[in-house]
Design a protein that fits this description.
The chain folds into two domains: 2-128 and 294-305, NAD(P)-binding Rossmann-like Domain (Rossmann fold); 131-287, Dihydrodipicolinate Reductase, domain 2 (2-Layer Sandwich). 26% of the residues lie in helices and 22% in strands. It has helices spanning 12-22, 42-45, 77-83, 113-122, 131-145, 174-177, 191-202, 235-245, 295-305, and strands at 2-7, 27-33, 67-70, 91-94, 109-110, 125-127, 153-159, 182-183, 210-216, 223-230, 252-255, 270-277, 280-287. The chain is globular.
Length: 321
């Protein structure tokens, strides 16, 4: 059994990690570090864990855990690792943006299991993908892998309120979010960089635009993304490519029926549906932003790094009603 630690234990992604790791048969949750909640019971913040655990948030860090999850705000993971040293055995999985872009200055591997499985298995440091980046990359990378992204890609995606984290802002208050819908960061969302990086890794000559309009929905969790691009082949040809790509994927499925968020919320699944309209291929992708888009995928990466069965601890059921 491996020892795990969590840094930044009070946020949404940490809450999901705690829920998964408490039930993971190969993991002991050694500590949950939080500067703001040190000494308080974990269930004081993550209230659904009442009766599930007696753990309290820690103000101390064990340097010798086998795996460390960084659930810090964007920009803080890099600073934290500069200020804290860990054992050579400690593997690190960062859930922020800090290490997602490849650089000679760090050795983090981009943790998208469907396309980077072998590198993840050998990695000591993992940069967990962003939630929008996961949903969109899984929708378009099968085409890139076949050098079939030959025109601009257009993406429209909606995320739930948990995508903004726990800190209150003008656009996260209930009174603003409820019965409301809005676009933000049009064509400029930070996840575009990592999506583009993944596309170029598979289709090196790709030079077409990826146009992305992110939206805020008035629901708590989940991402619904639609992407379309020109595709000269038939729908049957496209479906064959996608099913072949994800044939051995533990959580990504190509389906024929209409898809919606209730099928994936509270699971680590990504569902993909393909449709052809004239010369355009439409790919719809749905995930839970906190699980497949964050903590579930982080545990999926951990399973690969420690040679556990990939789906261990992640057979989660959707709350359909």
């Amino acid at each position: 059994m491996i020892q795990a630690g969590i840094i930044g234990g009070a946020g949404y992604t940490a809450g999901e990690l705690i829920r998964i790791l408490l039930r993971h048969p190969e993991v002991n949750l050694n500590f949950i570090y939080s500067t703001s909640q040190a000494g308080k019971p974990v269930s004081h913040i993550h209230q659904d864990l009442l009766g599930e655990t007696e753990l309290s948030f820690s103000g101390d860090i064990s340097k010798d855990v086998d795996v460390l999850f960084l659930c810090l705000g964007h920009g803080n993971s890099m600073q934290f690792l500069k200020e804290n040293d860990f054992s050579e055995i400690t593997k690190i999985i960062d859930l922020s943006t800090d290490y997602r872009m490849a650089s000679k200055d760090h050795s983090f591997v981009y943790g998208l299991p469907e396309f980077n499985r072998e590198a993840i298995k050998k990695a000591h440091f993992i940069a967990n993908p962003g939630c929008f980046a996961t949903a969109i990359s899984l929708a378009i990378l099968p085409l890139a892998a076949e050098n079939l992204l030959k025109d601009a890609v257009h993406v429209n995606a909606v995320t739930g309120a948990t995508g903004a984290g726990t800190s209150l802002t003008e656009t996260t208050h209930f009174a603003w979010r409820d019965n409301n819908f809005s676009a933000y960061k049009a064509f400029e969302h930070e996840h575009l960089n990592e999506i583009g990086q993944s596309v170029k890794m598979l289709q090196t000559a790709h030079d077409h635009e990826i146009n992305f309009i992110p939206n805020r929905g008035n629901f708590s969790r989940g991402i619904h993304a639609t992407a379309y691009t020109k595709f000269s082949g038939s729908l049957e040809n496209a479906i064959e490519i996608y099913k072949r790509t994800y044939n051995e994927a533990a959580f990504t499925f190509v389906v024929e029926e209409e898809i919606h968020l209730k099928q994936v919320v509270n699971t680590n699944k990504c569902l993909l549906k393909l449709q052809k309209f004239g010369d355009k291929l439409l790919i719809t992708s749905v995930i839970d932003n906190l699980l497949k888009g964050a903590s579930g995928q982080a545990v999926q990466n951990m399973n690969l790094m420690f040679e556990f069965e990939e789906s261990t601890g992640l057979k989660l059921k959707a709350n359909y009603f």
